[in-house]
Sequence to fold (908 residues):
Amino acid sequence: MENKRVNLDMKQYGMFIALIVIYLIFALLTGGKNLTPMNINNLVMQNGYVVILAIGMLLCVLTGNVDLGVGSVVALCGATAGIMLMDLKMNMWVAILAALCIGLLVGMFAGFFIAYLGIPPFVVTLATMLMGRGLTYTLLQAQTKGPLPTNYNFIGAGFLPTYKIYFGDGILDLVSIGVAIIASVAIIWAELKGVKTKKKYNFALAPAWQTIVKVAIELFILWFFLCKLARYNGLPFVLLIMVILIAIYAFITTKTVAGRQIYALGGNRKAANLSGIDTNKVFFWVYTNMGVLAAIAGIVLSARNGSSTPKAGDGFEMDAIASCYIGGAAVAGGSGTILGAVVGAFVMGVLNNGMSLFGWSTDIQKIVKGAVLLGAVTVDVMSKRKKN
Amino acid sequence: MSDYILEMKHITKEFSGVKALDDVNLQVKKGEIHALCGENGAGKSTLMNVLSGVYPYGTYEGDVEYHGEVCKFHNLRDSEAKGIVIIHQELALSPLLSIAENVFLGNEQLSMKGVINWTKTRQRAQEMLARVGLENENVNAPVNSLGVGKQQLIEIAKAMAKKVELLILDEPTAALNDEESKKLLDIMFELKKQGITCIIISHKLNEISYVADAVTIIRDGKTIETLVKGVDDFSEDRVIKAMVGRELTNRYPVREGVTIGDTIFEVKNWNVYHPDDAERQVLKNINIEVKAGEVVGLAGLMGAGRTEFAMSVFGHSYGQKISGTVKINGKEVNLHSVKDAIDNKLAYVTEDRKTNGLILIGDIKENMTIAARPKFFSKRGVINGNEEILAAEEYKKKINVKANSINQVVGSLSGGNQQKVVLAKWMLTQPDVLILDEPTRGIDVGAKYEIYCVINELAKQGKAVIVISSEMPEIIGTCDRIYVINEGEIAGELTSAEVSQEKIMQCVMAHNRKDDGNGK
Fold:
């Protein structure tokens, strides 16, 4: 058999390119203010929880639904942790565990109504949104609880250990550089291994130049990012959480039976059922999982703020949902990727960040974000229509 | 002027090169009940769609003359304006709206532009209901509070509200029981008295001989003949002969080298009740068995209960209060979920591939491996993607799926290739027993042949194959043995040596008569 060639699917990278373009536009508009190491660091820390929520939300969106309750669950779990730490003087780990359990319970509650009683997710999660918010206000007696202990705040505001040296007019963290080197080796190794497997099974390969360009861009982004962080204060702990979650969920959605079942359910529920997939079970776990991720986001947010407030996470569900759609997930379900949702979350983040630096008010920011969401989905829908 | 209200002359309609109608003529006299008969896919519905403007003027050849004028309908509204109303098999009622509102849906009684006059609506609805024998119903009740039979009558009332002159009923009794059917047919006599002309499409020949004044038979998109009551022989046998009297050419590949083994699939005393109605028994005491290497057909009319049977066996995917036993490879199995069925080597290739079989936005590989994945393409829940690609490539080649690659989106494939993907999906689960439900519906002759070849290949491998098909020639051409199912019961069993389309129809008719006899 001759060696087949296929082109890389550019659509997969379209959102990446859009993100870079938006970033560069703001670099121009703000005179490079958004390129500073500190700003890059803020970008990661400010968007950590949206990224975490977008990961969970993507699974809901894959089923063709959304979870409106996540913002409230974020607040509720933050409040739980705050009360455990401040009022009950509990150990940090106990507080974290309690917050995760609350998220799990809310998720299971929603999942039960959706999967086993057949109540539409929109209604169920609208209910958890209201109930969660009300419960948070009740628990916190409408007060902000803080400041939370420093060891807890580390989760949201801390950095991984660093080894700083003086470099040029500033400092450089060698740990970050080390991570960049290891990651680079991993990227190249994974690519080579992929090529080798494809050759072994005689699968189609992308042309060498495309692969090289792809890897080069990946490495450039990696180094740009990590060098900037190295120049500031090293790797934020939130980044570690994000990377681990992204890796786990990217693996689940692409490589596991359970993950593909979500896609099958979203693509055609009847066909999925008749193919031996217990779609009720899938629904249950998708929403349960969303609860747990919302809890993680709640912990990260309260730790970053150093306090639990009843208003926390207000409107986060919309940011998470928008991230998924901007990242190319289909509104009807069955299509979308974790990486897409993450990129979508960063598009939102870069827009927020850039517009703030540029001095636009949050009112204007909302208009722009709304327009970007509408534009991204319109482009997506139109491009699909043309193909058919 | 002639006494024909409708003359359709030399109608030819093509779908991308395939002639669905070929020089069809239909003449309907004013005030008569005219039946239209033919097998599934003969072109009856296409003809009615031409008449009602669903296929607009200009997309077909020939003329539609109504009251002696040539009609140029562009949509349903045009034909309705002339008093031609079609009632489809699927009810077009909005279930939660009131009876009165449904009767005037799309034809609202207005007091001024855009504002509904409810008093008038209710009054007029009452009048319309009286004309179809439903004067005792409350016009304010939601339509879904009525049974299917009465809903069908509401459809007729709705047509009357549009000042219908020519009423077309597409299989109006398909979903009705005998009593409801009788009532509906009697209403048709009533309509006739009121001067309304009716065209009825039906498979139930006993009903046609009861109600119709004339019957036109269509076969393979051509008019065969028109029989008139009192002039021609109007017996069921005569009609059946005209309906099916075609020669079978070698459209079915010969099955060779198959050794028929032991019975490996057995269903005994299978009883199933309707999923929404625990009182309604859908399947009664079905017993079937299939041997290894044997291809067995389930014949019957639409709605006879064949799909319901297959789905209820396949992991209780249909119905409730299911009782009976299933034996696969001699062992009694409990198939409570689709997963159980797959694990016990039973596969069911669903009818209606787009709704039930495929993830249209997914690619070929994804669709092919989805059912077999937990068992054959994964380890502790992690997918072996490379094995999947190999398997998909193998089956793509094996059953000749025409596509650029296994990454092509299934929604972009032709019907025949989509059907092959569904087949591959179930072959990959390595079943011993396969139930194929309408495996060739809506696909072209060439692809049909290839599917038959796959069926032969499966038989050769010693699998038990059950084919459900509404196309009788197909069942006869592919099966070793045939069970005729009618109204949820086995109406007869025929071997390939004795089977003919007439025999199948006779089985159905005999069973219907027996039922009628019991019922009254």
The CA atoms of residues 347 and 362 of chain A lie 16 Å apart. The first strand of chain A starts at residue 164 and ends at 167. The beta strands of chain A are 164-167, 170-173. DSSP finds 15 helices and two strands in chain A.
